[in-house]
């Protein structure tokens, strides 16, 4: 009788463990893939979002979520998901392609500021690395600098001092190269608040409130940078340089 | 009686002399100003015993409100006249007062209490005028700058429609030289869109005579304003900071400059709403004078090829209100949303905008097509009516071409118009990332990871640590005394261990000899002395010089004496006595080490 009770408890424990395992991010992600394959895009979106909520913050989940959103006709959330995926894997050609594809679907257009050749090169260099990669490179340069300096101070062996000088030079070189890129990346992703418009169409006004003049219109999927919020409105800047106030809640911060 | 009268007279004279040495005065930089303008009230005190902290500005409402104040600027001067040193203190405080109500007002005497005397300034009369209309001209008959220097803002109109351009120019009038002119923080132009027109890079003055007074007059900047809402509005004043020659000179005799600031008056503007009567349905808010033109980038092309129609709208209205012209193209044309290029400029001192709307069209059928006129509606403030302008009709010849590509026939796809993106439309998204047994968890980003950030301190600390160790090593190598002192304890421990081994072996003479050597050598190393020839007296003297505790001193000498006696058989050499002597020696060395710190 006692043995039966123990067997029952063990079974319940195994069931609970398996239920836990069923809710793991990877399982939810795979379930999302299965739903997507069947054309059930809303279910796929639910599964991917649940995987993200469970801590499965991975470029793969964001990318597949972007695909499911795009197939479900949700252009804004799709672009948000692709942007987040690209932050983690900036050199993934699939993510870059689908993001470009999604942006082509945006219904309207705003004036775009011309970027000169060298500024485009700079943008490309900055966007070729994730923030973590640039911070790791900066850290490596910093450690080479500190290590090289310490060895030069402490040791008197010529060959060791030569090696330390090389490390010192390499560290300075890495800092000079990665420093500005890291600062630009930090500024773009952390110090400013980039966001994507979620509403099909929203008016940008000259101030916070309906009584202010409408300046221009923004369409779902457009990139903006949120500058400040006041009285239920937020001031945003679009890449072309225009600024206006739009209703809070019509965009999602990336 | 005579004597008391003399003392009274002397007291009065001395008080008068003391008061004569103190000067307390106030001055306002202008006697007449408009509501919204700022005036500068300068309060100065010279002499001794006047504490600037004691001075409080009285309430000047309802005519003025305090817009800002500077910290007290104090200075001291020492003069030696006929061998007598005379010290004089002075201070100055500057208050920025903003006029808030019109009327004649007298700033009451300002007072300060030096403890024994109450000092007062003279009252200051000032006239505050209501804000004049924006178009009030400065060159009208009999007008003269109300202050020196004076910053004048003038608008080309004082009554406009919503969206109509108003050009405001700022000019400075001054008689004394000004240096280092800088604009203050730009005000918030809420309710207006503003576009900068001209900005003087340096003062380029000409002379003008105002009622017999010659002034330098210099243009500073101009800005185009577009009111975004109707009603009584106000263009806020601008602040200008500059320096003027001061009263003091530096060590080399050069005149020192003093920082000053002034602001222009606010400009009242009546903004009328646009009339509803006759407003076309496609009117986008453009107000001003506009022109329109159109061109095709090719006159003939094969079907399914692309052609661009560029419609340009130019005028002096606000660019954001220049919307897309109304255009109806043949139904067999596939038309993409236009690419919009904005060109901003100025002409005849006014802001000009040009917007090019570039439509990509793909004709799907062959034939000769007339591109109908593109229409643009605007409001002309001169005639106070709505106008429509149109482009001429254009002709496009479409020859039979290659069959329509499948992707180009997709309906409803819109987007960027570059060749690469047109190609992109014809593709599909790339497929999902495959299933994963385990997802990589990116976790906390590095810039938020405390461990990562803390680790970055290592490269900073390592060189400092290396430098400290290196310096210590160099000192140990070069400074024998320091090296002996640092090594004294370690070497004494080694000798005490040897003594312990001898104690266990039972060789009492050797044990006491080693114990004595351990203590003596420790003493010699610790105080950088030669071990040979150390006597009890010498040890006693060194201990006293170094301020070592009396108890330690005595015990140290007792243990040494015990060792000497035991070596020559005059003391107990039993195992317990040896152990006790060893324990005492260890304690003494430990106590001396502690006394080091």
| CATH topology category name of the largest domain in chain B | Immunoglobulin-like
Instruction: State the major sheet of chain A.
Output: 5 strands, antiparallel
Quaternary structure type: heterodimer
**Would you identify the CATH architecture of the largest domain in chain A?**
Alpha Horseshoe
Q: N-to-C terminal Cα separation of chain A, in Å?
A: 58 Å
Unreliable stretches of chain A (pLDDT < 50, length at least 5) are 15-21
Describe the structure.
By secondary structure, chain A is an alpha+beta fold. Chain A is built from nine helices and seven strands. Chain A folds into three domains: 2-104, Alpha Horseshoe (Serine Threonine Protein Phosphatase 5, Tetratricopeptide repeat); 117-191; 193-253, Roll (SH3 type barrels), CATH 2.30.30. In chain A, the strands form two sheets. Chain A has a five-stranded antiparallel β-sheet with strand order 6-5-4-1-7. In chain A, strands 2-3 form a two-stranded antiparallel sheet. Chain A is globular. The relative contact order of chain A is 0.09. Chain B is built from nine helices and 31 strands. In chain B, strands 1, 3, 4, 5 and 6 form a five-stranded antiparallel β-sheet that branches. In chain B, strands 11, 13, 15, 16 and 17 form a five-stranded antiparallel β-sheet that branches. In chain B, strands 22, 24, 25, 26 and 27 form a five-stranded antiparallel β-sheet that branches. In chain B, helix 8 (550-567) runs antiparallel to helix 9 (575-596). The two termini of chain B are 77 Å apart. In chain B, 25% of the residues are buried. Residues 6-20, 134-139 and 403-416 of chain B have low confidence and may be disordered. The chains are: A alpha+beta (254), B alpha+beta (597). At the A-B interface, helix 2, helix 4, helix 6 and helix 8 of A face strand 26, helix 2 and helix 4 of B.
């Amino acid at each position: 009788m006692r043995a039966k009770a123990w067997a029952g408890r063990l079974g319940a424990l195994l069931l609970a463990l398996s239920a836990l395992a069923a809710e793991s991010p990877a399982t939810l992600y795979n379930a999302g893939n299965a739903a997507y394959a069947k054309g059930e895009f809303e279910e796929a979106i639910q599964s991917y979002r649940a995987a993200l909520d469970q801590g499965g913050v991975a470029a793969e989940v964001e990318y597949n979520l972007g695909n499911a959103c795009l197939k479900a006709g949700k252009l804004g959330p799709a672009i948000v998901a692709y942007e987040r995926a690209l932050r983690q894997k900036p050199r993934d050609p699939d993510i870059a392609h689908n993001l470009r594809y999604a942006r082509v679907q945006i219904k309207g257009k705003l004036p775009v500021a011309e970027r000169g050749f060298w500024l485009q090169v700079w943008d490309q260099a900055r966007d070729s690395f994730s923030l973590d990669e640039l911070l790791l490179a900066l850290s490596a340069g910093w450690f080479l600098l500190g290590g090289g300096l310490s060895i030069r101070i402490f040791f008197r062996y010529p060959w060791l001092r030569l090696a330390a000088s090389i490390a010192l030079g390499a560290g300075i070189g890495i800092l000079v190269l990665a420093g500005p890129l890291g600062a630009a990346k930090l500024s773009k992703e952390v110090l400013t608040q980039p966001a994507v418009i979620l509403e099909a169409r929203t008016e940008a006004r000259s101030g916070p409130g309906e009584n202010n003049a409408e300046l221009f219109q923004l369409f779902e999927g457009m990139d903006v940078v949120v500058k400040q919020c006041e009285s239920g409105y937020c001031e945003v800047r679009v890449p072309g340089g225009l600024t206006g106030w739009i209703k809070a809640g019509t965009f999602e911060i990336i | 009686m005579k004597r008391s009268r003399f003392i009274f007279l002397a007291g009065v004279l001395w008080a008068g002399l003391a008061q004569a040495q103190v000067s307390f005065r106030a001055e306002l930089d202008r006697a007449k100003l408009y509501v919204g303008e700022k005036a500068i009230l300068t309060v100065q005190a010279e002499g001794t015993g006047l504490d600037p902290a004691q001075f409080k500005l009285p309430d000047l409402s309802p005519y003025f409100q305090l817009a800002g104040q500077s910290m007290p600027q104090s200075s001291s001067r020492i003069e030696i006249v006929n061998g007598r040193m005379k010290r004089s203190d002075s201070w100055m405080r500057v208050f920025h007062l903003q006029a808030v109500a019109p009327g004649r007002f007298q700033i009451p005497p300002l007072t300060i209490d030096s403890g024994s005397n109450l000092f007062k300034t003279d009252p200051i009369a000032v006239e505050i005028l209501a804000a004049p209309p924006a178009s009030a001209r400065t060159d009208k008959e009999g007008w003269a700058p109300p202050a020196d220097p004076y910053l004048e803002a003038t608008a080309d109109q004082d009554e406009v429609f919503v969206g109509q351009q108003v050009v405001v120019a700022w000019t400075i009038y001054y008689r004394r030289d000004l240096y280092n002119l800088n604009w203050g923080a730009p005000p918030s132009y809420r309710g207006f869109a503003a576009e900068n027109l001209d900005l003087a890079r340096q003062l380029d003055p000409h002379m003008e005579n105002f009622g017999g007074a010659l002034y330098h007059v210099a243009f500073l900047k101009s800005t185009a304003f577009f009111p975004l809402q109707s009603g009584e509005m106000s263009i806020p004043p601008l602040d200008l900071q500059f320096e003027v020659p001061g009263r003091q000179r530096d060590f080399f005799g050069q005149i020192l400059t003093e920082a000053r600031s002034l602001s222009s008056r606010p400009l009242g503007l009546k903004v009328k709403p646009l009339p509803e009567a006759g407003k076309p349905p496609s009117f986008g808010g453009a107000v001003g004078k506009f022109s329109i033109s159109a061109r095709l980038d090719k006159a003939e092309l094969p079907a399914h090829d692309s052609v661009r129609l560029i419609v340009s709208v130019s005028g002096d209205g606000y660019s954001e209100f220049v919307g897309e012209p109304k255009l109806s193209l043949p139904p067999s044309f596939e038309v993409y949303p236009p690419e919009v290029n904005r060109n901003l400029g100025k002409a005849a001192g006014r802001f000009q905008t040009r917007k090019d709307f570039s439509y990509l069209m793909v004709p799907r059928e062959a034939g000769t097509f007339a591109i109908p006129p593109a229409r643009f509606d605007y409001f002309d403030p001169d005639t106070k009516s709505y106008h429509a302008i149109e482009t001429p009709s254009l002709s496009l010849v479409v020859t039979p071409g290659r069959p329509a590509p499948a992707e180009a026939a997709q309906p409803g796809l819109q987007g960027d118009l570059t060749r690469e993106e047109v190609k992109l439309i014809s593709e599909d998204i790339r497929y999902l990332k495959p299933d994963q047994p385990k997802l990589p968890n990116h976790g906390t980003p590095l810039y938020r990871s405390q461990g990562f950030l803390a680790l970055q301190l290592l490269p900073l600390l390592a060189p400092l640590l290396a430098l400290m160790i290196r310096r210590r090593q160099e000192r140990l190598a070069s400074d024998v005394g320091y090296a002996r002192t640092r090594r004294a304890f370690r070497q004494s421990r080694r000798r005490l261990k040897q003594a312990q081994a001898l104690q266990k072996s039972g060789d009492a003479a050797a044990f006491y000899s080693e114990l004595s050597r351990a203590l003596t050598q420790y003493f010699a190393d610790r105080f950088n002395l030669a071990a040979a020839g150390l006597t009890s007296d010498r040890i006693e003297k060194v201990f006293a010089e170094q301020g070592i505790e009396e108890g330690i001193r005595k015990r140290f000498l007792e243990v040494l004496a015990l060792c000497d006696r035991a070596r020559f058989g005059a003391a107990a050499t039993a195992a317990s006595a040896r152990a006790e002597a060893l324990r005492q020696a260890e304690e003494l060395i430990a106590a001396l080490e502690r006394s080091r710190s």
